[in-house]
C-alpha cells in the first residue's frame, strides 16, 4: 500500500505569524512592501518544494500595536507572484463581504491565466464594522447574513468562471470570428444584496474553476475544494478533518523552529516580550525540525495537507526548506510540484466542465 501524500501549504503574508515578526526579519522594515521581497519569499517556497502558498488579506488596516501598519492587496500580490514563478500554486485571500462579484471573478481568473492554471481563492468574511465605513457601505450584521452573502458571492463567481465555455474563443483570422457566441452565457443572478447578469469579461480560467479554500465554519455554504480545520492536538485535527465537508481537508499549523542561532523557545520569548503570539485554536509546534517531521508524519494518514504559519518567515522558512520538506519528500510523505501541472493537478482534483456547457448539451 502506498503512503498517503501530505500536501504542504505555506502562509507567506507579512513577516510571519507573530505580530512582532518584523522585529526579527532579515531586511529593513520598508522592504516588506516591495516586489523584490514578495518574489524572493515565493521563490524560496517554490524551491523548497511547497506546492502552494497562501496570501492573507483584510479589508481594514491592522490596528494599533506591534503589527505592520499596511499590506499590499492579496490578488495583486498573487498576480505578481504568478508572473514570477513557474511551479508553486498561489492562493489569495479575498473576503466575500462588501465585494463586487463580477470584478472579483475577473481578477481571480486573470491570475489563473497569468499563472497558467496555478491560482486559488481562500474565502473569508469581514466582521469588522470599520470595513463597511471604509467602503462607504451599509454594514452586514449577523453571522447568518455574512454566511448568506458568502454563499451568493461564491456561487456567482463560480458561475461567471463557467460563463465562457472552454471552446468559446475561436480566434479564426480567416473569417474574423473571435467568439462562438453560443458558448458565452449570461449568469442572471438575483440575490438579497446584489444582482449579476454576466457573462464574465474574462475567458474561462485554465483550471475551469480555480481551487477554492475556506475555513471549516464556512464549508457548508461555500462547498470548497479544500477546508481548513483547526484542533490543538493531532487527534483533534484528525477528527475535524473526518467531518469536513470538502474533497480535501488541511490542518492549520503554527510553527516556530530551532535555528542555528537560537532555539524556538528563545525566539518566541524574544517576540513575546513585545506581544503575545495569538492563539487560534490550531495545532502549534515549537521546537526542532525533526520534531516537526514526526508531527507531520503522524498527521499524513489523517489529513490531506497542512497549512504552515511560520513564526518568522526569514528564520523558519530556511529550516523548512533545508530540513523539513526534504525529509518528508525523502520518506515519500510529500511530493514536490511537477513542471506544467495546474494547482488542481497538484492537489489531485479533477477539472470540472462548465455547467453551462452541460446544460446546452442536454436534449430539449
Gist of the model:
The chain is of the alpha/beta class and about 375 residues long.
By CATH reckoning, the class would read Alpha Beta
- N-to-C order of helices and strands: EHEHEHEHHEEEEEHEHEHEHEHHH
Tally of DSSP β-strands: 13
What is the residue-averaged pLDDT? Answer: 91
List the strand order in the largest sheet: 1-2-3-4-9-10-11-13
Provide the fold topology.
Elements (H helix, E strand, L loop, with lengths): L6 E5 L23 H14 L3 E4 L18 H9 L6 E7 L5 H14 L4 E6 L4 H7 L7 H20 L6 E4 L4 E3 L9 E2 L4 E2 L14 E5 L3 H4 L3 E4 L4 H9 L5 E10 L6 H9 L10 E5 L1 H11 L5 E6 L2 H18 L12 H5 L7 H7 L3
Parallel strand pairs: 1-2, 1-13, 2-3, 3-4, 4-9, 9-10, 10-11, 11-12, 11-13
Antiparallel strand pairs: 5-6, 7-8
Helix pairs in contact: 1-10, 2-3, 3-5, 9-10
Your description of this structure?
The termini are far apart. This protein has an eight-stranded parallel barrel, surrounded by seven helices. Strands 5-6 form a two-stranded antiparallel sheet. Strands 7-8 form a two-stranded antiparallel ribbon. The protein is 35% helix and 17% strand. Helix 1 runs parallel beside helix 10 (313-330), helix 3 (101-114) packs across helix 5 (143-162) and helix 9 crosses helix 10. The relative contact order is 0.18. It has a single domain (7-124, 207-361), classed as Luciferase-like domain (TIM Barrel, Alpha-Beta Barrel), CATH 3.20.20. It is built from twelve helices and 13 strands.
Amino acid at each position: 500500500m502506498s503512503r498517503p501524500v501530505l500536501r504542504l501549504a505555506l502562509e507567506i503574508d507579512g513577516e510571519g505569524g507573530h505580530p512582532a515578526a518584523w522585529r526579527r526579519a532579515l531586511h529593513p522594515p520598508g522592504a516588506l512592501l516591495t516586489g523584490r521581497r514578495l518574489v524572493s519569499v515565493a521563490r524560496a517556497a517554490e524551491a523548497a518544494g511547497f506546492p502552494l502558498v497562501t496570501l492573507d488579506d483584510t479589508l481594514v488596516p491592522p490596528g494599533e500595536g506591534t503589527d505592520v501598519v499596511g499590506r499590499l492587496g492579496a490578488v495583486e500580490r498573487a498576480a505578481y507572484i504568478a508572473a514570477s514563478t513557474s511551479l508553486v500554486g498561489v492562493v489569495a485571500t479575498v473576503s466575500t463581504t462588501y465585494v463586487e462579484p463580477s470584478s472579483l471573478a475577473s481578477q481571480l481568473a486573470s491570475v489563473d491565466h497569468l499563472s497558467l492554471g496555478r491560482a486559488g481563492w481562500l474565502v473569508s468574511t469581514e466582521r469588522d464594522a470599520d470595513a463597511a465605513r471604509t467602503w462607504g457601505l451599509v454594514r452586514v450584521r449577523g453571522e447568518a447574513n455574512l454566511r448568506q452573502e458568502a454563499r451568493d458571492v461564491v456561487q456567482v463567481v463560480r458561475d461567471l468562471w463557467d460563463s465562457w465555455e472552454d471552446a468559446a474563443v475561436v480566434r479564426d483570422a480567416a473569417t474574423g470570428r473571435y467568439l462562438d457566441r453560443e458558448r458565452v452565457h449570461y449568469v442572471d443572478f438575483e440575490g438579497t444584496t446584489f444582482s449579476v447578469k454576466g457573462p464574465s469579461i474574462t475567458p474561462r480560467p485554465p483550471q475551469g474553476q480555480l481551487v477554492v479554500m475556506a475555513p471549516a465554519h464556512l464549508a457548508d455554504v461555500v462547498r470548497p475544494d479544500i477546508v481548513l480545520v483547526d484542533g490543538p492536538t493531532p487527534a483533534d485535527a484528525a477528527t475535524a478533518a473526518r467531518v469536513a465537508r470538502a474533497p480535501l481537508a488541511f490542518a492549520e499549523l503554527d510553527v516556530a523552529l530551532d535555528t542555528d542561532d537560537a532555539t524556538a523557545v528563545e525566539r518566541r520569548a524574544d517576540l513575546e516580550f513585545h506581544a503575545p503570539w495569538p492563539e487560534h485554536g490550531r495545532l502549534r509546534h515549537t521546537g526542532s525540525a525533526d520534531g516537526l517531521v514526526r508531527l507531520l508524519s503522524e498527521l499524513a494518514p489523517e489529513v490531506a495537507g497542512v497549512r504552515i504559519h511560520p513564526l518568522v518567515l526569514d528564520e523558519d522558512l530556511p529550516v523548512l526548506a533545508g530540513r523539513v520538506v526534504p525529509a518528508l519528500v525523502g520518506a515519500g510523505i510529500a511530493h514536490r510540484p511537477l513542471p506544467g501541472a495546474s494547482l488542481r493537478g497538484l492537489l489531485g482534483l479533477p477539472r470540472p466542465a462548465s455547467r453551462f456547457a452541460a446544460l446546452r448539451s442536454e436534449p430539449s
